[in-house]
Amino acid sequence: MRTHILGFPSMGRQRELKQALESFWRGDTSAHDLTGTAHKLQEAHWGVQREAGLSYVTTGDFSLYDRMLDTSLMLGAVPARFAACGKDALTRYFALARGDASRNIPAMEMTKWFDTNYHYLVPEIEPDAVWTPGEHPVLEASKRATALGFTPKAAIIGPFTWLALAKGQNGADPWTRLDEVLATYAALLEQLGSLCSCIQIEEPILCTELLPAAAAERFTEAYAGLNAAVARAGSTSLLLATYFGPLTQHLPLAANSGCAALHIDLVRGPNQLDAVVAALPEHTALSLGLVNGRNIWKTDYAQAANFIKRAVSALGADRVLLASSCSLLHSPVDLAEETDLPGHIKNRMAFAVQKCAELADLKAIAQGQGADLLAANAALLAEAQAHADTVVTTVRERAAAVTPAMLARKSPRAARKEAQNWLRLPLLPTTTIGSFPQTDHIRKTRLAFKRGQMSQADYETAIKAEIAGCIKKQQELGLDVLVHGEAERNDMVEYFGQQLGGFCFTRNGWVQSYGSRCVKPPVIYGDVYRKAPMTVEWARYAQSLTQKPVKGMLTGPVTILCWSFVRDDLPRSEVCRQIALAIRDEVTDLEAAGIHIIQIDEAALREGMPLTAAEAAVYLQWAVDAFLLTSTGVEDRTQIHTHMCYSEFNAILPAIARMDADVISIESSRSGMELLDAFTRFHYEGEVGPGVYDIHSPRIPTADEMVHLLRLALKHIDKSQLWVNPDCGLKTRRWEEAYPALENMVAATLRVRVEL
Ligand code: GLN
Ligand code: ZN
Questions:
Q1: Distance CA 635, CA 626 (A)
Q2: All domains in the chain, ordered by first residue
Q3: pLDDT in tens, 667-719
Q4: Pocket of ligand 1 (CB under 6 A)
Q5: What ipTM score was computed for the predicted complex, to two decimals?
Q6: pTM reported for the whole predicted model
């Protein structure tokens, strides 16, 4: 029985790759230094896999920036604007990834990798572009691994996934390039064939509904060609890897691809095993994705052993491989680095290094030598459940007692609008999304307090001074609805996680988000509850300084869930409901403290959406319910806002409408208000604040530009529904940028108001 992982995180235990990349970009180190670090990291990762006793070490999983970009370069699909970037391969590579500021060439677009928090560089297909294939880093890595005595399994992203995720420019259809793409892949496979006995070709697109029908029709013939190329190369074979969902619609294609083995994700698709086994042709091997590549929790060995038993009894042990569900890219590196976690939580955890060892355990168990491992695992998981802060009876009782009435405002939207007239807001009210510039002084204050170098009292005085300064500037600017500015918040999720029961934080649990950027998500390990009010005093103080309404600022339950590592012993919907109840209390406390406009940010609602329509529908049902549970405990006269920083709403407008927020602010300056069209066609009845300028850019927009955008917006939406605000929070901007931009925004609003 063979064992393997689909990939190991590139970053390193101490984020060595991040440091190496950033010092190279600064010009402090050479290309030689960077390559040296990259090689050392790969060798260390192969060492972990060999030490764990896995049958293969994976190559081609490591990338200096992104594997989709590596694939694009292998195919030669380089957009024409980079022609000026010179011949040096590394310079060109990073120009594609990050843009070339000196030549004013924008980077390739980045977007989320399926429903993960990892971002890849989107292939751009230009009409009639001539592609010159380049070398894929997997070749050199596989040679190096072999030379070092490892047994490599090469991992590459498959042609159908690459094409399905590509974007055609100026009307180009990526699929017209299929034959050319397949020819380059065949050449790569022939070269790899002499280096590796197994090649993992990844087609997660088969678990989605994103593969066009015409492309699906060509899959079987295409894979026959790729398998023929592999056969020419010798004794190697292809393992077709699917992940991030069950195989449903495309199961026949995956099962009959002609590849020697098929990998399935049993974490995201636990119910697919029987259907897959039944569909699998004779001799085809099955790789079982048992160890979750996307979380930090130990595998339930009994459950995994049951899957293995079923597969082995149907296929025989020789035809079964044990594997991670997907690449371990999405989990942190090594639990051994965590020295501060409480024992009962750490005992339940497994990071990438530990996940490799789990596969060896599962193999021992499958071979009947692991009774003690099985028992120890069961005892650990049971112990965790018995711990008083994993299951909190009062939280469970309250969550079970949620009634439909708790998911609805007292009155419908129109009546609420009347009731909110007392706020005396002008037409086209101006506001901001919440955060104001996080100055060095603010950061230093928070850090000093965190390190114990500043007393609680001094810290409160310092933050209050920031709030007062922020309110004063907003008054000067003449904004209508003010905010306290979020100076006390490091991050919109961490701030709440640190104050809620059921959360803990790792020291080193970093996960790559894109390029050299990593995130360290909070961990939800137990039942979530609010210990005390979290934002009320800051909001109350801010309101005490002004006659204008101050908008309270909270992060919504779905966003807190999506940006955390979530316990796997409770359905996500249940965890979300617990968070919702905690934030609901904060909402009603804010109202009681005299805060009558409350914004609940749901920046992650859309990205948390599963990949298939059926799963997405289930998700949107409980996700919107959680928002409703959070936001509906208030009187009609209190105005609920939400904010979402993206501009693709078509698929989720019904869900947005069901959220029943009085006001929603969205990103839209870059799309020229086009997205409002969708709101109009949908007859969206709520108030909308389409962002009138892009806060991601340091550029200060002129009043004229914003006048133009507001006039456009008024073509789509009635003046009684329109708000004026930037695209998102201002925390990454400097005051020198934020202040004049808002000055222009208010001036633009005044100019448009007189036209109404
Ligand atoms: N209130 C948050 C802020 O202004 C919202 C951030 C976000 O949506 N990403 O920073
Ligand atoms: Zn935003």
A1: 18
A2: 2-328 (3.20.20.210), 419-490+534-737 (3.20.20.210)
A3: 988 778 888 989 999 999 999 999 999 998 888 999 999 999 999 999 999 99
A4: 433-435, 492, 553, 601, 603, 643, 645, 728-729, 731
A5: 0.99
A6: 0.94
